[in-house]
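Revision sheet: structure tokens.
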Amino acid sequence: MKIPSLITRIRSILPSLCVATLLTAAADAGARRFAYSYETTTMPAGAMELESSVTWKTQQASDPDYERFDIRHEFEYGVTDKLQLAFYFADWRYEESAKESGKTKFSDIAIEAIFNLTDPNTSAFGSALYGEITGGDDFIELEAKLLLQKNFGAWMIVYNVGGEIAWEDDYQNDEAELMQSAGVSYSINPSWSVGVEVLHEIAVPDVDTIGHNGLYIGPNIAWRNNRFALAITGLWQITTLAGEPDFQLRTLFSVDF
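Predicted:
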């Protein structure tokens, strides 16, 4: 797909993505600046939030008809000022390809925990530990990451590194993936920020074998006020993996209550 036609599609689909994300959530939100990378700060004790994301993946070189939407719905709760738990209560996806027309299916549920080690506002840098357990009809997946963050006035830099391992096909086959991501953001004012994100994924198909790796980069914009927050990031693949999407766009909306 040519870049001009992709831009036209983004313009046509972005409003729908934003509306879909807004409607899937119910009401200072978590105010994430990035759609793929996590910051190290956690919600205060007793705080609650609904967060929903829609990720659109398209432009797969090996399948021009490929299109996929991943939708996640998450409830977050501040257990303490340093521990945040989340429950993904409805993850589902819509996918179409050359082999089959559009198909919608339930994907999984998940439990997530983020434990803040150091605060980026009071320490030299922020750090946190991230863990997630995901399960579906015939698979289970474990994910762990180290989150780092540094603030310089209006600038914010984050870096995530970790990996995941999954047991699929009725838990008979295992595969893993290593990942790292980074983001740089600048606050134009208290409500708006702009920046860039980078995502690097390395497949480990047999756990002990390193497979292909994909590198993505693209712009980011975020908006927030007292209760609501919206982050949008578009990533282009700059490697040449035919079986992976050349472009993906994620919108993430959160509401505090």
